[in-house]
Amino acid sequence: MSMARLFQExxxxxxxxxxxxxxxxxxxxxxxxxxxxxxxxxxxxxISGLIEGGGFARAAEFGCGRGTISQYxxxxxxxxxxxVDTSEDALALARANxxxxxxxxxxxxxxxVSSGLPSDSYDLVLSIGLLEHIxxxxxxxxxxxxxxxxxxxxxxxxxxxxxxxxxxNDIYKKIIAPFAPAGSIRKDYYRNNDRPEQYLAAAxxxxxxxxxxxxxxxxxxxxxxxxxxxxxxTALYRGIHRLRGLLMKEPMATNYPMSQAHFLIGYKPAVxx
Length: 273
Description:
Layout: H1 3-11, H2 14-17, H3 35-51, E1 58-62, H4 68-75, E2 80-85, H5 88-100, E3 106-109, E4 122-128, H6 138-147, E5 148-158, H7 167-176, H8 196-205, E6 209-216, H9 227-247, E7 261-267
Parallel strand pairs: 1-2, 1-4, 2-3, 4-5
Antiparallel strand pairs: 5-7, 6-7
Helix pairs in contact: 3-4
């Protein structure tokens, strides 16, 4: 089955399912209360640090899914967002999530390889958990480069297949599998096994300048868990994160073996006069 078909199935009926599909955005001033909220909350905080004071006004998110990061950038940062996904069901969910917080955005059903968005038009182009699912992600990086304004920022959070702290959840799922309700254990999808250095080289090949990668996220996500366990784990991670923040500049950063993901950052060269 093709990747496009798999993701169409993933989002099919997501609006009516509700649950945590509608519960990943954290309003200003509130703390994250679930493991997945915790991760996205701190991914957004990192992005906010990159764009602070840079005059960023317009951004596009490729492979937006439920649109949580775009919600953050709209509500917390005042950025005008364009959300792109191949799934109409994903876009319907993103629209519902935006409406839930009284926010507006542009929603485009298109492929990240050929989005149809205007060239040289966005200050920021980002994706969260997309490139690792694309067999040739260089094509997506080239499309991001095309639509960025000169001097614009490309950000991608990638989760390639690798051993990491998240393997603890694989062990947990095997233990609970005989007792878990049908459909409660989420299936994974194709992921490439490329290392951060390979993504970095692909970004440079696409034309990006001042590129960097950071291995991130030493916090495993355990699913499915009862609500009480969810709250306990999230509170534990918040405490650990605060402690890490006293010891290091970026608390989400970690080494490659422990990391679940990496941040890929690059800039479109500014026009030279």
